[in-house]
Design goal:
389 residues; mainly alpha; 20 helices
Length: 389
Amino acid sequence: MTASAGNEKLSQKQFKKDISTIKTNLKNGKDLEKSEVTLRKYLADTTFSENKTLHLMMIECLRKQYDAGNERMYLKEKVDTAAITRTNIKQFLAIETFDSLDAKPNSKGIIEPSYRKKHAESIKPFWGNLLKGGIYFYAHSNWKEAWQCFDTYLDCFKQPVFTDEKLDSTQYNFASFLAVMAACNIPDLTLALRYADSATNYAPRKEMVLQRLADLCAERKDTIHYLQYLNMGNEAFPYSKYFFPNLIDFHTARKQYDIALQYADAALEKDSLDITFLLARHNVLMMMQQYEKALEDGISLLIINDSLSIPNYNVACIYYQKAQEAMKKTGMTYKQRLKKAQRYYKLCLPYMERYKKLRPQDTTLWYPILYDAYLNLNMGEEFDSLPPL
């Protein structure tokens, strides 16, 4: 006998011994965790990985562990909820793995899964516990295991073993929302995107999930999905302080001013007096150097709320720029140029003085303009009141 043949014989002998022990353990309901470890060792070996008997023993082993845990819970004994939940996940995965093996075509090319109905009926009563277990892990900030629970729960809808069971889909969007939130907390964008579509259909938390998805996409530099969720959020929640401002910031940062202006104009068509929308268009117009239109929006904003610092500054600067241009006009006497410029300086002053009051620390912004305005308007007292730089 060769050495390899001897080792194979020894291996088969050990296998038969282990299986005999496991059968005894399953019959007596003892040493189930050890039996599970041994079964996993064999199933991880390509020699035994498609052995249906071992898979069925694994399913029975996990079921008995789960039943024992539920019995202790029923008797109000001390129970490890996390351990019971993990076992429940494992028994679902074990049944799904066996079903994929059992559903392989036979020698005649016929698919006849012999255990599908039995397994589906036996495991279905514990399906809802996957969701409950996920909520338990979620409440304890155990994001990865929460995700696994929700994923296992949701994946059942796609598993052939449950095709005829008509699983209740009323909680699908809710479970998807929780799965996405868990994935965002891991954080893992790939996992988050798996159930993102259904999660965004969970109306009570639609705004939250869209924002979290957008945040994670921005963090992972996934521009396509980032814009997708910003647009979805902007459409559903136009007054949100998150979606619209971020859309404007995204496009202006890339100097896509025309696109940013389209968003601002569309928003103002829905509400022409909203400060956020007006301010966004005002700022975009300033970036586009369309100062006349920016001036109109700035004044409209300040009629609504005169304590907005940016419009005060921008309006003052536009009038200041007009004064500067007036002084450079050709074909006019100095006195004529100065008179025209002074009209703009007078228009500039109240806005810049208000900006100074609102932002006294921004000396480098308001000081030069007030200096020129006071000087050209012969406002000696105000000029002397300016602090030294």
